Amino acid sequence: MSVQFTWCRSDADYARFVLYYIRNRHLFSEQLNLLESLFYVLDSIQRTRILLIQSGETLIGWGQFGYVNEAYEPDPEGPILFMQSTAVAPDHRSPMLFFLGFREMIGSVIAETPHVREFHFFALRDHTYLNRLYSKFAQIIGQREGMHGEENIYATGMDELKRYLRLA
User: Fold this and answer.
1) What is the pLDDT of residues 18-58, one digit of tens each?
2) 10 Å Cβ neighbour count for 57?
3) Of 24, 30, 114, 166, whose CB has the highest number of CB atoms within 10 Å?
């Protein structure tokens, strides 16, 4: 399986993302309805970067992140890289794809925004697989009540993340 990572740059790229996200919103959350999906995309697309994941010409997933301050408010000069959402179609998931996509995203961020010092993200507390995966490179620094249940708040320093992804 050949997989390519492409950053959204054009209106056509963003349109592909929006359509894929809405059609495949269950990949991000089983409980996400159409109205919530539309609101989320319209609210977040202006202040985030989006990495499209493709197999040939077929879109199979995305990664979406932005820069925030300590209160998780959008801030282009914020010291925290925050993963907004990410998902890959189940039949394409693999540890290698996760690693390569994550490496592509972080490598790009490091090159473009050296002021970023930390990487944060949320994960549903009861999602055993994701919590086991994420604990390999980040620590739980708290919990919060999310839109679809209790979430763990994960964080790691960019230097630690670079070592994990073999970018250092």
Assistant:
1) 999 999 988 877 788 899 889 888 888 989 999 999 999 99
2) 6
3) 24
